[in-house]
């Protein structure tokens, strides 16, 4: 049951994303117009220390009007690898320099509407460098035990899909699996 994109026309564009209207052919031959958001890829870092804690940012999202814990994240700049962007964003947003990075997972948080990929990296520890350059991104930055991740997700304190995916993987591999 494959849908076919027969072409797109731009509706809106800025440096971060483009909104297109696609002509889509359905398997039964019908056509529909579907909005598509073309976005730059994002990179995130889940830094985990020797105490099985992950560095999280407590931040407000004005679009949803919610507060929650998230991983440091941002768009991948031209010429950057996803790993370079993940390390840069962590330092800028948290003030901590990531330890060695390993790819953890790549997710498509809204693949029914957007083509944006979120590349999540695990950092083996981190070193505090100083107050974050982008301190406006979060109210506070804390090391949070992976043991409490499921409850933070259930209570709505972790809502961001990319953070949920990454932290559940880390919780399952580091806490449940031993």
Structure description:
With 178 residues, the chain is an alpha+beta fold. It has 2 domains: 4-38; 42-176, Nucleoside Triphosphate Pyrophosphohydrolase. The protein has 3 helices and 12 strands. The chain has helices at 82-94, 149-154, 161-176, and strands at residues 4-13, 17-25, 31-39, 42-48, 53-61, 66-70, 73-75, 96-98, 101-107, 118-124, 126-128, 140-145. It has a 4-stranded mixed beta sheet, with helices on both faces.
Principal-axes shape call: globular
The biggest sheet amounts to: 4 strands, mixed
* Rg: 18 Å
- What is the fold named in CATH at topology level of the largest domain? Nucleoside Triphosphate Pyrophosphohydrolase
User: In angstroms, what separates the terminal alpha carbons?
Assistant: 41 Å
Q: Give the strand order of the largest sheet, numbering strands 1, 2, ... along the chain.
A: 7-4-10-9
Would you identify the regions where 5 or more consecutive residues have pLDDT less than 50?
none
How much is the average pLDDT? Answer: 95
Q: Class of the largest domain, according to the CATH hierarchy?
A: Alpha Beta
Summary, kept brief:
By secondary structure, this protein is an alpha+beta fold.
Question: What key phrases describe this protein's structure?
Answer:
alpha+beta, 2 domains, globular, four-stranded mixed sheet, 12 strands, Nucleoside Triphosphate Pyrophosphohydrolase, 3 helices, 44% strand
């Amino acid at each position: 049951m494959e849908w076919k994109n027969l072409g797109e026309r731009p509706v809106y564009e800025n440096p971060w994303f483009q909104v297109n209207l696609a002509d889509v052919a359905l398997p039964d031959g019908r056509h529909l117009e579907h909005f598509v958001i073309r976005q730059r890829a994002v990179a995130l870092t889940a830094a985990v220390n020797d105490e099985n804690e992950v560095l999280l940012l407590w931040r407000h999202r004005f679009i949803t009007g919610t507060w929650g814990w998230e991983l440091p994240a941002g768009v991948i700049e031209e010429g950057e690898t996803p790993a370079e962007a993940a390390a840069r964003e962590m330092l800028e947003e948290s003030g901590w320099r990531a330890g060695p990075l390993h790819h953890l997972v790549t997710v498509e948080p809204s693949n029914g509407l957007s083509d944006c990929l979120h590349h999540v990296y695990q950092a083996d520890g981190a070193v505090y460098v100083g107050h974050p350059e982008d301190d406006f991104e979060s109210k506070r930055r804390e090391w949070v035990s992976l043991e409490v991740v499921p409850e933070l997700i259930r209570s709505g304190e972790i809502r961001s899909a990319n953070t949920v995916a990454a932290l559940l993987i880390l919780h399952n591999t580091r806490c449940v699996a031993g």
